[in-house]
UniProtKB/TrEMBL annotation, chain A:
Residues 610-796 form the TPPC8 first Ig-like domain. Residues 1170-1192 have a biased composition (Polar residues). This is Trafficking protein particle complex subunit 8. It comes from the Eukaryota. InterPro entries: Ig_TPPC8_1st (IPR058541), Ig_TPPC8_2nd (IPR058538), Ig_TPPC8_C (IPR057651), TPR-like_helical_dom_sf (IPR011990), TRAPP_III_complex_Trs85 (IPR024420). Residues 1126-1262 form the TPPC8 C-terminal Ig-like domain. The lineage of its organism: Eukaryota, Viridiplantae, Streptophyta, Embryophyta, Bryophyta. Residues 801-925 form the TPPC8 second Ig-like domain. Residues 1170-1207 are annotated as: Disordered.
TrEMBL record, chain B:
InterPro entries: Longin-like_dom_sf (IPR011012), Sedlin (IPR006722). Gene3D superfamilies: 3.30.450.70. This is Trafficking protein particle complex subunit 2. It comes from the Eukaryota. It comes from Sphagnum troendelagicum. It holds the Pfam family Sedlin_N.
Amino acid sequence: MEAAGAALAHLMRDRFSPVVMVLSTPRAEESCRKNHLGFVDLLRPFSVLDQINVPVRTASEQPYRLQDFQLRIFNASEIRQPSPEIAEEHLVEIVTNSSDDAVGALQGDPANIEVVKQMAESETQVSWFQRYSKSFMSTLAFSEHEALDHPVACLLVVSSKDESPLSQFVDLFNGNQLPRLLNEGAMDPKILKHYVLLHDVQDGALDGCNEILFEMRGAFGVNNCGVLPINSGAPDVAFQLDFWTRRSSLPIIPSSHSTSELVCIVSSDVQITDFLLDVTLKQVIPHMEQKIRMLNQQVSATRKGLKNQLKNLWWRKGKDDTPDVQTGPVYTFSSMESQIRVLADYAFMLRDYDLALSNYRLLSSDYKTDKAWKHYAGVQEMIGLCLFMLDQSRREAEMCLDTAYNYYQKCGGLTAKYATRTALWLSEMHKARGQFREAAGVLFRASVEELDLRAGVLLEQAAYCYLRASPPMLRKFGFHLVLAGNRYIVCAQHKHAMRVYRSALSIFEDQGWKYISDHVHFHLGRLSHFLGSFDLAILHFMKLISCSHQSPTNQSNFLREFLYVVQNTVGKDKLLELDLPAVKVENVCVHFEDHRTYASSAAAAAPEEIWGPVEEGLLPAVTVTLHTWMDAPSKSLPQVKDFNICVAGEDIGVDVEFSNPLQIPIDISSICLSCEFIETAAASEEIDSQISKEETADISASPLFLPQEAFSLKPEEKIVVRLMVKPLKEGVLKVVGVNWILSGVAAGHRDFAVLGPRIKRSKSGARDEPLPHQRLKFHVLRHMPRLDVSVHELPARVNSGELHRVVLELYNPSKVPVKKLKLKSSHSNSLLVGDPADLDMEFPSCLEVQAQEGQQEVHNAESFEQDSSPSGLVFSFPEGTVLEGGSTVLWPLWFHASHAGMLSINTVIYYESDGATVGLMYRTVRMTHTIQVLPALCISVQISPSPMHLQQFFLRLDVENQHLTESFWLRQVSCAGDHWCLAPLLPPMVEQEGMGGTDTAEVRAAFLSASVCPSQLLPPSQTLSLFFKLLVAQHKGRSSSEEVTSNIGLGPPSSSEPLIDISSGPLFRFLLSATNPMSDSGSVDVVLISEQQEGMGTVQDSLRVGAHHVCHCSVQGAQPFVWVMEAPKCVVHDFWTQPFCEVSVTLTIRNCSIFAASVRVETLDLPSAASSQTTQGGWTSLGVSTPPSGESSKAEPPRKSTSGVPNTEVMVNRASCGPFLWCNLQASTIHTLPAGASAKVPLRIAFFAPGSYDLSRYRISWTLLEFEPTSSLSTAATSKEALGTGLGHPLLLTVVQSIT
Amino acid sequence: MASTACFVIVSRNDCPIYESEVGTAPKKDEAAHLHQFILHASLDIVQDVVWTTNAMYLKLVDKFNDLLVSVYVTADTHTRLMLLHDSRNEDGIKNFFQEVHELYIKMLLNPLYVPGSRITSPFFDTRVRTLARKYL
């Protein structure tokens, strides 16, 4: 048998050793009391006899020897089963007292699994569990169903001081203080008696006793008497205390004596040892031997052999109908069954296990047939133990114990405790054989039926068994520990519970089994709180409170418990690393303002890239030191990047995202940033150190201003809060984390864990840890004024083309003045800086033509132009503009959106501080505005040359209202610049001389009402076309008046609405920005001005004026050449005198293209008959009915389609009028006609009869010189025009026969 | 009849990647951790049993009082499908496991699912519950 088995066997031998009963007189006890010990206590330490060699002969003839032996010595009063209540109380006390031992047994932290394992493996008999199990078993001793605990011998103790000791001896045994077992007949009252005379040496010499001893020997027999002298030793406290406390086993029934304060005088222990040795060897063992032999003989006679067996069977059969009572029949000591039991038990105690086993087996069948289940189970238990001691048939041993367990359990009631005892034996057996899983199973099964506390103890042991199993079953271990902990909690064994839960924690923590770890943390938290370790309690509860997977009830429970603990312990004083609310510590957004300041949050949110182009040219150039790979890496470079820069007295905002993972609302208050602030030592100001020290002392109390936020988070809500910090002094500020108070109780804290981008160092190749980002470090500089900038009256939605005056307000809240203001905008063609004088005027009317100011305005506009053009559209405020502290400056801006869409205008204002004692050189304010521009009027212009005049064009203006809902009033059409002027294309006002004056007035009124524009109002999605004449301005002499005439009001001529001046003011400047100043003068810029009335009221403020530009309209028509033949309208000739009339005409050709060209003019003869004879059906054209007189320019009706293309059909028709002949060269060529130049070709015509002639019989063909399609960007359309021909325009000439 | 059934998928590193109470018994708060405890503890048994058989369905491996634990082990990743139940319905449980295994394989085919991470797909959840109603 292995070591473990041997240990268990030894334990069993100890437990099942013969019991010796002690009956003593009060005087004898009194003598012992001098040592503060009872007589039994005095003897007990010496009851283990380990150096003996006794031959024992039981049933067999062969004697064997016992090397060691033990007696269990009890007072007669103790030989009874304690009541269950007292027994349980006693056991509870043991558990309670051993809680510290249990912790002590763990040499280390219970959370460490290795420590627990070591403890479990080194389990010894002195461990608290073994103590407990021993005590538990001893509460079950002295049962009537087993004879193991029946006293084998009785010591009758009488003091030598007693009067008449002999009668005392007799009285002792006859008294009613005998145990119940003897009185009730469960055991044989005729037990071995040994008479002891106790003599106190201090009372006198031993000699006095001899007399009594002699008498005793005479009365009770020589061998049955003895004398025991005590109190002979010298007092030796240290030795004595130690000796007795170590050797004495705890009595079942707590006795009144306390061993702590005794001053003892004991006899030398040798005497007691000798005494017990003598009793054991000469009395107890021989008595037992004798009894075994006797009983064995009896059993053999009655039960062995076939005859006896049959008889027994018959006899038993007869009792079959006995009712199945729980305890079975009562067996008295004289019954055969009891006799066999005593025989077997004595054999077991004397270690003759074979004999014991055979008798137990014999007995078990009897009890089974008797249905005495308790007795049967007891016998089965002993069979199991015998088999174990014999180390035979393990399987059978286990089965027997298992049967015993089941039958004990079946009996129920108090008997069930024996089941537990059996289970303990069985588990010990499994453990001794290394079958830990089975042991655990047995213990677990026992725990199910047991009371809470014992179940807890058993479960804990089961857990250790799982741990010791190989491989260790850690999860089972943890589970059983938790089960044990649960039971301990129920029994208020908090220390034990704490210990087991802590051991279990390491198994369950961070495994992903959330409910489990929550359960463990919850109980640990509660236990820690109960046991007073508050830090630990808070730690455990902290892991609980952010449990999103739990039900809302649990969540609120956990939170409440946590808050309760915190409130009762640390309160708000201690900052806890709370997980509730969840803070995104890796992702915080920092808002601060160094030299860049933002006018609005929208501007701050705009990405940094967009500001680069805007600030270009505005900021002073930064000297950037360039590094090449040859330079040594500069050490100072990271230093520079270490800190952000901010200004004292200004807020730094940190956006932190809080989220509530729970399904219950939580309240959070006093949220603020936690910062570290190091004030810069004012080293340079040593002179003022005295004063500054005082000052700093005052202010340094709060160098930071931290506003606190509070909010309530709804279930699973997520919000982003901007927390502010305002440094009031210069120094280095580091934002560390965020603090808050949860539900007004617990102070929480989280550090920001902002990591910078990973930097890969190419040299080492190894990837470094990302450096903590410097985003949260600030270098606080001295005060620097910060302008508040706002823009008023800027609408969020405008129609395209609308013109708005907006007001820029600059406010300097600081005391330091600000100068050198500059402004730059990303959309300089949409936002212009106006003149301060613009502010004073009413908005729409300031645009109107003001004759007296005209010159000045033009001058101003020119000055602005000079400002803006060279420095890349930076507007510098006038030199004198200084913003004093606390002052406000208003400045007008003009806004005009030409294209539809979303327009985001980024504007930067630059300024410098006037004072020298500021932290920054300069600052900028960034603004961004997003404006939605809706499509409104869309205009297009088509210009075609007039066939009549070279310097005249027709202009068609198509206006389309693209707006979905609004309609527009068209107010004015203007043509910008000095080169062109517009004239309305109106029907000629025929002066009818013959009519009356009233009629004339009517006609005139009708004419006036029919203006250029048929309807001024343009409803949504409607199109309107307007026609104008475009003239080349002769700006030699009359420049200013020409300007005026280029504006044409679209209202009825009678309307008195003033025209709007586009040659000055904002409109002009917007036009300028829209046109390319480098453009050639040949193009036309047309402006249509519309207006809208908002609402029904005609208040001037609500009038919205829009200006629509169409720029660079080329006057070039479809052909690169225009030509006009000039001829007299009417020639009077006398054909009688001269048969033909010769008229000279001039053909003027102008080159409109940008290339030089060679032009060839051909005059055509009469067309062939075939072509001339084809007459068109239907419409014949205009020319015939044209009145011969009147101005041809006015006679031309407005034509759309024919304006550009020469009409060949007309010409052909006209050809039939009559013959005429060209009298010049048939073709003449102008070899080089430069671009834009014109040439005249003189022609002559001969007529032979009076009539009207169409002079269109000529053809012009041209070749563009230097025309290279590749170099030109123009399209294929132009390449076709490199060569081209055109026929002559129709021109009528009337020849009249002169009358004279 | 109210039955208890708690279904858990345990990943290779012993973390539960999917949990659901599929029984018809009304859900109790204290049951949640008890079920987890039992399932977690029975992993120890599964660890032993899995080497003793070729079958993926390990049948009953553990019990705690009247709660039984049946386990199905996938071949490839040693993922364990565990069912805690109180009714003895071996065929149904076997079918349930097979169907859920199929679902799980489909889950693995999803390129956006990292094997061994928590299964959060609501589709998977609904399907598992449907299967549980069908077979258990």
